[in-house]
Amino acid sequence: MEFLPLAKSQMKGEGVCVAGLDVETGRWIRPVLNGYRCLFGQEAAEFEWNTLHRVKLGPSQPRPVDDDPDGRHTEDRILNGRPERLRRITPKEKLQILGENKDDHFSRELLAGKCSIFLVQPAAFRCHLDDEGSYRWEFSVLGVWSSELRTQLRSSRIGVGSSGCKCTCPEWTAFAKARLGAAHITERAVESLPGAPTLFLTLTLTALHRDLYWLVVAGVHLVGEDRIWL
User: Fold this and answer.
1) Do residues 109 and 212 both lie within one domain?
2) What span, in angstroms and rounded, lies between the C-alpha atoms of 124 and 141?
3) Mean pLDDT in residue range 28-56
4) Which of 147, 107, 101 lies closest to 124, judged by CA?
5) Among 134, 167, 184, 215, which residue's Cβ finds the most Cβ atoms within 10 Å?
6) Same domain, 23 and 62
7) Separation of CA 13 from chain center
8) H-helix or E-strand spanning residue 147
9) Do 111 and 213 belong together in one domain?
């Protein structure tokens, strides 16, 4: 299977969550170790951003009921052996893959309760640093802001932070601080970059915490016609 990582985030402790697409079928995959819900440093380091990998996967691995009582994390598959790096993808390829697999009605998919990974292309967004140094995102898809969904999603045990969805993507944090240099960022800052790149967000649900699955931004992608920024 050819696999493109689109989320790679540090979990509490030593675990790393890696998720991405089977580029041939468009299915979301979260490679995990047998008996765990994540990878660890050595295994996660094998997956490189913006690179196609050949991976061998075992069966699906349902999570313990305490972590996932609603059975949302259907993408977990046991990783067999080391992934093989094939090649870097081009900006045109990444734009095509993201465009073909974005969720224009992601709130409907969230409420359906059959998956835990989503890809959106916001029409607008607000991003700011919180007191702990993490970026928080609010974004609009088809005219609906994530904050407007908070009450509706909570009835399905999905949490949206009161100050926005927490960003767990280290690539965005490093890029935003170095390149954009602002505590508050909107789509105008992205549009001002050379080539006016298109922004996509990989959203994931956490394991159940305080009786809610929390929606987080686990991957940020900035892609122009001739350059991949992230």
Assistant:
1) yes
2) 8
3) 94
4) 147
5) 215
6) yes
7) 19
8) none
9) yes
Do 115 and 176 lie in a common domain?
Answer: yes
Overall size of the chain counted in residues: 230
Distance in angstroms (rounded) separating the CA atoms of residues 34 and 199: 34
| Confidence (pTM) | 0.96
Is 228 part of a structural domain of the chain? no
Give the C-alpha distances (Å, rounded to integers) separating 43 from 81, 83, 116, 176, 193: 9, 9, 22, 27, 34
Q: How far apart are CA 72 and CA 62, in angstroms?
A: 9
Give the mean model confidence (pLDDT) for residues 143-149.
90
Residue 12 in this model has a pLDDT that exceeds 80: no
Q: What is the mean pLDDT of residues 79-105?
A: 95
Cross-strand pairs, 51: 88
State the Cα–Cα distance between residues 218 and 28, nearest whole angstrom.
Answer: 14
Examine the domain organization and report whether 144 and 177 are in the same domain. yes
User: What domain count does the chain have?
Assistant: 2
Q: Which amino acid is at 150?
A: R
What DSSP designation does 179 have? I
Residue 202 and residue 8: Cα distance in Å, rounded?
A: 10
Of 3-17, 19-33, 116-130, 161-175, give the lowest mean pLDDT range: 3-17
**Residue 127 in tokens:** 């991003």
The domain of 45 spans 2-88
Q: Are 84 and 109 members of one domain?
A: no
